[in-house]
Every structure is written in C-alpha cells, then in structure tokens.
Amino acid sequence: MTAIFRVLPFIYICLGLLFIIPVATTIYNVAIVIPRIDPDMLEPVSLVPTITLLFIGLVLITISEINGILLLKRKHRRTSIILSCILLLAFPIGTLLGIATLFVLNQGLIKARYAEQDAAANP
User: Fold this and answer.
1) Model-level pTM?
2) Domain limits at 114?
3) Torsional sign, CA 95, 99, 105, 109
4) Whose CA is closest to 57, among 96, 18, 14?
5) CA triplet 120, 11, 119: central angle to 5 degrees?
6) CA–CA distance, 26 with 70 (Å, rounded to integer)
7) What are phi and psi of 92, to 5 degrees?
8) Cβ atoms of 84 and 98 closer than 8 Å
9) How many Cβ atoms sit within 10 Å of the Cβ of residue 49?
10) C-alpha angle 84/57/7, rounded to 5°?
11) pLDDT above 80 (res 87)
C-alpha cells in the first residue's frame, strides 16, 4: 500500500502536465487557426462552450497539481480527500486516480503517517 502512496503524487503531477496539452491546443486553435479559416466561428455563441471547457480543464489541472503536491509533502489529508472526490468527475482517468487515492488515504497505516506528521509539525 505504501508503494502506491509513493507513486500517487507523481501520477497526479504528470496528469496535470498532461492536461495542459489539450488546453494549450484549444487556446492555439481559437486564437490563431480559427480566425484564418473561418472568422464567423468566433461569434460569442460558438465560443461559450470552448471557454467553458477551457475553464474546466484549467480547474482540473490546478486540482491535480495541488493534490499531487499535498500528497508528496504528506500534509493536509482532508484536503487531499476533498480534491480526490472532485477529481472523480474527470472520467475516466480522474475517476480511477480519485478512487485509488481515496482508498489509499483511508488505510490505517497512511492515517497514522499523517497523524505523525501533524504531531511533529505541531509540538
């Protein structure tokens, strides 16, 4: 179980970096490619779904990165649980990672490690 716990932060950080690719591609397409091909596609009605998806992607990137950092530092267990629950909505990869993280964070040994860390930080 601790082996999975050691790997999870790096998976979250890599996942956040992987989410950057479609977001950057979409921004590039909206800003550069679409105006050259069809300027009528830049009407507000057609941009609302794109901007909404970009915002959701940026939120998922941020949640993934923050959760990875918190797991790496072994701090704020409750926050990691909440962020993992939010990532359950990012089907399919976020769902799998969220379930694995929730399973690992609720193990007795991991809870004890977080308790030791909190006790050492707050003497």
Assistant:
1) 0.80
2) 2-121
3) negative
4) 18
5) 10
6) 29
7) -95, -30
8) yes
9) 9
10) 40
11) yes
